[in-house]
Amino acid sequence: MKRSVLLILLCLAIGVCGCAAKPVSREFFAMDTVMQLTAYGPDADDALAACEQEIRRLEGLLSCEDPAAELARCNAGQSAVSAETAALVQTALELSEATGGAYDPTLRPVTLAWGFPTGDYRVPDEAERAALLSLTGTDKVTVTGDTITLSGGAQLDLGGIAKGYAAGRLRTLLRDAGISSALVSLGGNIAAVGAKPDGSAWQIGLQDPQSPDACFGVVSVTDACVVTSGGYQRYFEQDGVRYHHILDPVTGAPAASGLLSVSVVSSDDTAADALSTALFVLGLDRGAALYRAGELSFEAVFMTDDGSIYITPGLADRYRSDRPYQVLA
Questions:
Q1: Using CA atoms, how far apart are residues 218 and 226, in angstroms rounded to an integer?
Q2: DSSP three-state, residue 235
Q3: Could you give the CA distance from residue 168 to residue 188 in angstroms, rounded to a whole number?
Q4: Is-contact 92 84, C-beta < 8 A?
Q5: How does DSSP assign 252-284, residue by residue?
Q6: Positive or negative, the Cα torsion across 143, 93, 164, 231?
Q7: What is the pLDDT of residues 70-129, one digit of tens each?
Q8: 146 phi and psi, to 5 degrees?
């Protein structure tokens, strides 16, 4: 469950101002977040209308909260799903394996106990978390053709990749409609189609966890996405303690990895969504090790608890900030 607010309006202006062509925009609420789409070209209106329809369609497949949605029905015991849903669940399992389980699509029983999907917040004790964690694990999920089998009380939640997958689908729709320049913001999952109309790269501002009305840095992207996870985005407080929504699959508690935020830059929207969660759980050192392993193609910007900023080498010429930062070796 990730509700990123990477791109605030101030930062969005960095990406769209200065373009010669007139933008067409569309804003609506879906997947529990505000979605903002901007495109350029004579067919932009129709293309963005088709994009909204696509988001509504995907919501009908991937929602856990709508009992009529495929994923919710799957959690309720129905095994037959569409080929699209089955394929995305298989992708989720593969991304979980690739991240050593740091991204886990089976954490729904634990997130429900914390109240993050419903807003009925509470702090489950260690014994309750241990009992709920016994219901999780990708080994309890089997995908065979268009059939998903859940065992041992497992439940799926694709909130960690659903908006990323949706962003990728929208980018495909826009390209197929002849749109060569567009920016899609799905609650903070920022995806760019091509470059800006003047040919320059999009400038995506990264929200400062320590000062949410400001950006701490800017990433230049063309035909790529930027996805951020941070403990400052969604949380509640109890007895003076703040509990954020990014749970560690090992402890069932909010991840205490030494990070305030991590932003992932990639051409793969779905993988970037999962990776932003996984890297936040892993922390700087293990996240950097995952990057160096080279099995997944991505770049990243890390901010640690003390406000220090680290970027991966592939961003050395695409990241700028007035604040000091280090390039990971």
A1: 11
A2: strand
A3: 14
A4: no
A5: SSB--SSEEEEEEEES-HHHHHHHHHHHHHHHH
A6: positive
A7: 999 999 999 999 999 999 999 999 999 999 999 999 999 999 999 999 999 999 999 999
A8: -100, 30
